[in-house]
Amino acid sequence: MIKESKKIWMDGKFVNWADANVHILTHTLHYGLGAFEGIRCYKTSKGSAVFKLKEHIERLFNSCHILQMKLEYTPEEISKAVIESVRVNKLEECYIRPIVYLGYGTMGIYPKQNPVRVAIAVWPWGAYLGEDGIKNGIRLKISSFARHHVNVTMTKSKTCGDYVNSLLAKREAISCGYDEALLLDTMGYVAEGSGQNIFIVRKGVLKTVPLTSVLEGITRNTVIEIAQNENIQVKEANFTRDELYIADEAFLTGTASEITPIKEVDGRIIGKGKPGPVTKKLQSLFFKIVGGEEKAYQSWLTYV
Ligand code: PPE
User: Fold this and answer.
1) Pocket perturbation via mutation, ligand 1, pick of 196, 223, 259 by most ligand atoms within 8 A of CB
2) Which value, to the nearest 10 degrees, does the dihedral of the CA atoms of residues 167, 171, 173, 176 take?
């Protein structure tokens, strides 16, 4: 169960957790057109800090632009509301979920007069794929569901309804005894996890999927940047499931999942079956950065 916090920001006001309700005919609940973000706030020696707030708010506004939802707030106002939400709930570390949705108004596919509403909830959320997963790696299964094609939905938007695809894939993977699903694109190349981008390491080169069918992950961009700064060669190129099977190392990235090593895919051990040197190096640097221990990356943190 979710760990409740105290207050939720809804359309400019804080309401009690238990009172953060909407009408059953809320448009997004029926048809799925809405956008959300997932952001993390970490504890540092100088107090709590939100990681890459600007990038997350920018992506939220981009999602709304793609989905043609006009917000009544500016990015600065939403950023301020995010910080306020962490503050009023007095949490040192938390996950932050802004959501923009179409409220009550008309029904039917064409939302003529429905208001564009916004809410921000925060709650404590530990390792998404478990403490053991983040330390020792997880087991993935290639999904029988393909990742969205860009002209079916649109993949640069973090659209609420798109997650039906993720959910079906994740359920299938879990029911087969795996930890997480890996979806291929409609061409058959590796795309991403149900809520994570994927990287592989082969012969010291880091490879990740180009931005066609996958979400432009903020953790993905973070990993690319820190790897380049560490003089690790990074390539954005399509790869097949069998290239993943023979990778030396592989890992998933996401705000919720952070950097989670992959130890097995479809019954095949990846590399030595435990986090490899490149994965470990990037993971440890990532946790130092979000924890405020790396001077060079301070600009990625917004202190609460
Ligand atoms: N792909 C998908 C489909 C995705 O949902 C996420 C984030 C990513 C890639 C990684 O993006 P980023 O967080 O910017 O590095 N998934 C969010 C939702 C997870 C959930 O279960 O809810 C997240 O990680 O917060």
Assistant:
1) 196
2) -170
